[in-house]
Write a structure and sequence with these properties.
Elements (H helix, E strand, L loop, with lengths): L4 H4 L2 H4 L7 H4 L32 H11 L6 E5 L2 H11 L6 E4 L6 H8 L3 E4 L10 H7 L4 E7 L11 H10 L3 E5 L21 E6 L11 E5 L2 H10 L7 H10 L3 H23 L4 E4 L6 E6 L2 H10 L5 E2 L9 E5 L3 H13 L4
Parallel strand pairs: 2-3, 2-4, 4-5, 5-6
Antiparallel strand pairs: 1-7, 6-7, 8-9, 9-11, 10-11
The structure holds pyridoxal-5'-phosphate.
């Protein structure tokens, strides 16, 4: 069976007539705007915030398009990546009937979003090397499997997923394959965006919350075929990205050099941190990372977590999950923060 987007879509979405906002119906420049029931007198903060934002985020999308080398018609912008994740569920998964596949341990929102949307989950654990188990994936797919969620580099393990494995899944699955590249800028591997041309069932997610340092603005991005992006745009709420977020992001995207400098520092610091951890007797294993964090297995993760917390250093405790037993996920900090972390870890003595 060939990939066929029409047969994948939920019927209500295929038949959806999207909301047409005032700014959709008239998008030129006018002298007087009396079409959107805004406050014509102004706003108590900055004057122009009395106006609704551009629902199609035209300028910002053009900017993202020039950086990513893909047309605006293949870009969806959301309120963080969590919005496109939820929209993909709402577009393709019939509640109570369809299912999606996740490959744990992985980013938790795929499961939460599935639960919110009443969509069943087939969980196929990653192998010991944190790579997809292709046979188990093939056996786990049924007629109602609509989306396979792949996170690469993966959170919380930090490794990239093998290119050949992703390609096998894309070639053999007729539903949507999402590759979440939230951490791609810290990776040695290149993005899957150029492969969109060959795989109509591929959706790539990225975010400005990590390498770009703009988590507070909440800008997530989905890249896909024009058809898929068009569907996502019809589902989103009309004004999903505020005007200040659009404007500030537009300006921030000018500072590519600064972002590249930060990426280099964080990657260098990641390697320094890994080297320092490797020499500590409390550490059992450091997993290879293509992200801005390290997954570290300790002999007693809870003890380490509690000790760090007692001096105000907070890391993510993943030690209760079977595949990441005794593991802490440590975000790479500033050089000074990393020094303080290393110093404190060196002082811990296992009783
Ligand atoms: C793999 C992955 N995807 C997506 C996100 C969410 O990013 P955003 O801030 O864009 O919602 C995260 C956040 O931690 C993540 O780890």
């Amino acid at each position: 069976m060939e990939f066929n987007i029409k047969s994948l879509l939920r019927k209500n979405i295929a038949n959806l007539v999207p909301y047409s906002s005032a700014r959709d119906e008239f998008s030129g420049i006018a002298a007087i705007y009396l079409d959107a029931n805004e406050n014509s007198l102004g706003s108590p903060y900055t004057k122009w915030y009395n106006r609704y934002p551009d629902p199609s985020q035209k300028l910002l999308k053009e900017k993202v398009a020039s950086i990513k080398g893909i047309p605006p018609s293949q870009i969806f912008l959301g309120n963080g990546s969590d919005e496109p994740i939820d929209i993909l569920f709402r577009a393709f998964c019939e509640p109570g009937i369809d299912n999606v596949m996740i490959l744990p341990p992985t980013y938790g929102m795929y499961e939460v979003s599935a639960n919110i949307n009443n969509v069943a989950i087939t969980a196929i654990p990653l192998t010991e090397n944190f790579q997809p188990d292709l046979d188990a994936i093939a056996n786990g797919i049924d007629d109602h499997t609509k989306i396979i969620w792949i996170c690469s580099p993966n959170n919380p393990t930090g490794n990239s997923i093998d290119i050949q494995a992703i390609e096998m899944i894309l070639l053999n699955f007729n539903g949507i394959v999402v590759v979440d590249e939230a951490y791609i800028n810290f990776s040695r591997h290149r993005s899957w965006i150029p492969e969109l041309i060959d795989f109509p069932n591929l959706v790539v997610l990225q975010t400005l919350s990590k390498a770009w340092g703009l988590a507070g603005l909440r800008i997530g991005m989905a890249f896909g075929s024009e058809e898929i992006i068009h569907i996502m745009n019809t589902i989103k709420s009309p004004y999903n990205i505020s005007q200040p977020a659009q404007d500030i992001t537009f300006n921030a995207l000018e500072n590519l050099d600064q972002v590249n400098d930060m990426i280099k520092i964080l990657v260098d610091e990641r390697e320094l941190l890994a080297t320092a951890l490797a020499s500590m007797p409390i550490v059992e294993k450091i997993f290879p990372s293509d992200a801005n964090f390290l997954l570290v297995r300790f002999y007693n993760a809870q003890l380490v977590y509690d000790d760090l917390a007692s001096v105000g250093i907070i890391v993510r405790n993943r030690s209760k999950i079977e595949q990441t037993k005794n593991c802490l996920r440590i975000t790479v900090g500033t050089p000074s923060e990393n020094k303080q972390l290393i110093k404190r870890l060196q002082e811990i003595i296992i009783p």
